[in-house]
UniProtKB/TrEMBL annotation:
It is found in: Endoplasmic reticulum membrane. It is a multi-pass membrane protein. It comes from Neolamprologus brichardi (Fairy cichlid). Pathway: Glycolipid biosynthesis; glycosylphosphatidylinositol-anchor biosynthesis. It comes from the Eukaryota. Signal peptide: none annotated. GO terms for molecular function: CP2 mannose-ethanolamine phosphotransferase activity. Keywords: Endoplasmic reticulum, Glycoprotein, GPI-anchor biosynthesis, Membrane, Transferase, Transmembrane, Transmembrane helix. This is Phosphatidylinositol glycan anchor biosynthesis class G (EMM blood group).
Length: 859
């Protein structure tokens, strides 16, 4: 950006590196820039559909003061400030595939607006650079042309402001800033240095300096510069270097106004505010300021006046820094009443599902009538209603539940009590209390139990949360070694003990008679022995494909090597091989119609990747133009819907018309194959080996491990869960929001449509856990020698496995809400846990309902 560099180096400007606070996504950053406060992590979710900002902010203060504001750009501003702009034109911020029109729609207003004199503040929010980052990363060839385009726009605005300068008029102020940075992968949302470092350039006649400031410092600086009150909840401090050209008296006045605002906020936020060092320093500086003013008003012009003034200035700056730091740590306002109510509800549901998951009953008997007729039920309802009224009518209460209507609350209170009494009745009649339950544990059971508990406990440490993938890689490697031990024991030790064990080891009742049974048994034995080492090898290769976490995320990996333009031919061959292998692994249990649809769909996947420029066809040349691949993606969607329709049809026939277990199993496998095809479309080309290895390990483990070693539904479920968690990180995911690839939400879309964009993004992010959860259900339903409640038991176990760490983590985050890394480490992980729990609950609820519907219809 040559013109911008020229202005910074030689022009009248102040340039800074403004440090943003996580979460580094658009809506929270706009709130920080306009209010000066530190937004909460719930704003990451609210970013999808931003509500109006009711907090005191710079835009509201300017409008109240009669300033005429014009806005063009990201429509998040329009949603946050719906009635504040005299004129506006919003552009959709989430359609990341568009990086041209989204900026042209802003620039087209510039020429006419800059010629007019009927506005006081002009706000422009360009999105093209952000969208290019999401699509192809910060080192894309599209970045430089876009930067030059932004440089020309800045030059046009600056030249127009210079031409409007009139002698004696107030000087203009041109602010150039970013709301967030960009990670090495082109995303944002986390707390890495590239994501929190943003440029801030203030261009106006008569100042020039560089430095580092907090992003929230812009709010009080602009407010004082525009003659507006500072926002009540602002924790920023005025950028002192901007005030250097003003008189000492004005500098002290501005600092006093900022200090008074921060001291008032300190009183409202901290009970023992008088003990704060910053507050005491401000009182001392305020008294010294009063003494200086007496000397100034008396007409004293000696050097003593200047020295005293500079001393007061330093005292103010120290006080502002101390108060701002104290407020940044303490300003997080937590809705404890709502948090505790949510934790109680989650723990009740968790305890309700636990007996069924551990006993294998796979059915919940809800004694609703007996609970409703009990006197303690009504007494507890009265008690909870009284607590709610007391909390919500207190003078200082401000919580989400208190904002709900009273009718809704008094309907929720009996429902919560009913849940509690159902839980109490279920536990008193639980099969776990029976002496017939066998609690003997094998070595594998001990590992699965210890690993699950150990992982839950590890979430209490921020380093383990940041590098959680290492925990799952270790557990998965240990699991493979333990399974290998079981295979060796089964095929060698037991074989020595009894010569007839082979019939038990490899049951043949479901197989066709073989002409060479000994040769087949021999090959199966060695394939079973090779499966755990092969799984270990696949996992080791996948670890090198995508570096994730925090400590080693910057190290180049195989994915970076494959995505470089020099190795596009290698990536093309690898993608083609993976797609062919995916077809052979998935098509085995599908009908011939679904097999044809799957083959054409996978061909469409390769065509889509070729259209967007990730891979090549043999007849393509390197200089060809890329497209968005909309037609190719929609071509694949047609076959996905066809396969899902075929599977759903078979599933409904097995549920409603005829109780055919074989038809039901085929329907489930076809739905699974449709899901695999959708994931192959959403995955980036270099991640197709992750999907390929996932399907290959599932096939080998199902054929030679789970079936042959007679693992029960609970053991199989826990292994599926562990594999799903590991594959979540094999994809390149982490507990950092910046690793969420939002570009997949627009595959096949021409514009931003909220529901499919959210669905596709969530499916792509959690593809690993979802594929393993769906494979679990398909596998358990296809095993004819298992208990008829095996699928239900597996779903309860999966729900329990997902709920235990989520419930423990919610309690942990509540306890650690003032931890140093609460916003940068623990809060993003909480969002991941919540979304994962929601998806798992949906999958389990669907399959449990499907399993229980035939029995209920028969009864």
């Amino acid at each position: 950006m040559p013109y911008t560099r020229h202005v910074v180096e030689r022009g009248s400007s102040h340039s800074f590196v403004a440090k943003a606070r996580p979460p580094t996504v658009t809506m929270p950053r706009i709130k920080a820039l306009t209010t000066g406060s530190i937004p909460g992590f719930i704003d990451v979710v609210m970013n999808l559909n931003s509500p109006a900002l009711l907090e005191d902010n710079l835009i509201w203060q300017a409008k109240t003061a009669g300033k005429r504001i014009v806005f063009y750009g990201d429509d998040t501003w329009v949603r946050l400030f719906p009635k504040h702009f005299m004129e506006y034109d919003g552009t959709t911020s989430f359609f990341v595939s568009d990086y041209t029109e989204v900026d042209n729609n802003v620039t087209r207003h510039l020429d006419s607006t800059l010629k007019r004199d009927d506005w006081d503040i002009l706000i422009l929010h360009y999105l093209g650079l952000d969208h290019i980052g999401h699509i192809s990363g910060p080192y894309s060839s599209l970045i430089q042309p876009k930067l030059m385009e932004m440089d020309d726009i800045l030059k046009k605005i600056h030249s127009a402001l210079i031409s409007k300068e009139v002698e004696g008029s107030l000087p203009y102020l041109l602010v150039l800033c970013g709301d967030h940075g960009m990670s090495e992968t082109g995303s944002h949302g986390g707390s890495s240095e590239p994501e929190v470092s943003t440029p801030l350039v203030l261009i106006s006649p008569a100042f020039k300096r560089k430095g580092v400031v907090e992003q929230v410092d812009l709010t009080p600086t602009l407010a004082l510069g525009l003659g507006l009150p500072i926002s009540q909840n602002s924790v920023g401090r005025v950028i002192q270097s901007v005030l250097e050209e003003t008189s000492l008296r004005d500098q002290l006045r501005f600092l006093h106004l900022n200090g008074h605002q921060l001291s008032c906020l300190l009183k409202d936020s901290i009970s023992d505010y008088e003990k704060e060092v910053g507050f005491e320093q401000f009182r001392v500086a305020e008294k010294a300021h009063g003494n200086w003013m007496k000397l100034y008003l008396e007409g004293n012009t000696s050097e003593v006046l200047t020295n005293v003034g500079k001393k007061v200035l330093r005292q103010y700056l120290e006080a502002l820094a101390a108060m701002s730091a104290a407020l940044s740590k303490q300003l997080g306002k937590y809705d404890m009443y709502s948090m505790i109510a949510g934790m109680v509800f989650l723990l009740l549901v968790l305890l309700l599902a636990m007996p069924e998951a551990l006993s294998g009953a796979a059915a919940v008997d809800l004694p609703i009538l007996s609970a409703l007729l009990s006197l303690p039920f009504y007494l507890l309802c009265l008690l909870l209603a009284s607590v709610h009224v007391l909390v919500c009518t207190s003078a200082e209460s401000s919580c989400y539940f208190c904002s709900l209507s009273w009718g809704l609350v008094f309907a929720a209170v009996p429902a919560l009590n009913l849940l509690f009494f159902i839980l109490f009745s279920s536990l008193s009649q639980s099969p776990l209390r029976s002496s017939e339950v066998d609690w003997s544990l094998s070595e594998l059971d001990v590992l699965l139990l210890a690993g699950t508990i150990g992982h839950t406990l590890s979430l209490a440490a921020s380093s383990f949360v940041e590098e959680e993938h290492q925990t799952w890689y270790f557990l998965l490697n240990t699991l493979c070694l333990t399974v290998f031990q079981d295979v060796c024991r089964k095929y060698f030790r037991e074989k020595r003990g009894s010569g007839d064990d082979e019939e038990h080891i490899l049951p043949s009742k479901d197989r066709h008679p073989s002409a060479h049974p000994k040769a087949e048994i021999f090959s199966e034995k060695w394939l079973a022995l090779a499966t755990p080492p092969f799984t270990l090898l696949c996992c080791r290769l996948l670890r090198s494909l995508n570096q994730t976490g925090v400590q080693w995320a910057h190290i180049p990996d195989v994915g970076h090597w494959l995505n470089s333009s020099e190795h596009k031919v290698v990536l093309s061959l690898l993608s083609a091989f993976c797609l062919v292998l995916i077809y052979f692994l998935v098509q085995r249990r599908c009908s011939w119609v679904s097999k044809v649809a799957l083959a054409l769909g996978l061909l469409g996947v390769y065509s889509y990747r070729a259209a967007v420029g990730n891979v090549l066809f043999p007849w393509h040349h390197s200089g060809r133009t890329m497209s968005k691949g909309t037609v190719e993606a929609r071509f694949v969607y047609v076959f996905i819907l066809g396969i899902l329709f075929s599977g759903t049809k078979d599933l409904l026939r097995s549920q409603i018309i005829t109780a055919d277990a074989k038809l039901k199993s085929r329907g489930l496998w076809e739905i699974y194959s449709g899901l695999v095809l959708l994931v192959s479309l959403l995955f980036r080309a270099h991640n197709l080996p992750v999907l390929c290895c996932c399907l290959l390990i599932q096939t080998l483990m199902a054929q030679f491990i789970w079936k042959k070693l007679h693992y029960d539904a609970a053991q199989t479920t826990i292994m599926h869960y562990w594999f799903g968690q590991a594959f979540f990180y094999f994809q390149g995911n982490s507990n950092n929001i910046a690793t969420v690839d939002i570009s997949v939400g627009f595959v096949g879309l021409e514009s931003y449509i909220e529901a499919p964009a959210i669905f596709l993004t969530a499916l792509s992010t959690y593809a690993g856990p979802l594929l393993w959860a769906c494979h679990l259900v398909c596998y358990l339903s296809s095993e004819r020698d298992r208990s008829p409640v095996a699928v239900g038991h597996g779903c309860y176990c999966l729900a329990l496995l997902r709920s235990v760490p989520a419930a423990a983590y919610i309690v942990l985050v509540t306890v650690l809400r003032y931890h140093l890394f609460i916003w940068s480490v623990f809060s993003p992980k909480l969002l991941y846990e919540s979304m994962h729990l929601l998806l798992t609950a949906g999958v389990c609820l669907f399959f449990i309902t499907m399993e229980q519907s035939p029995s209920s219809s028969k009864s």
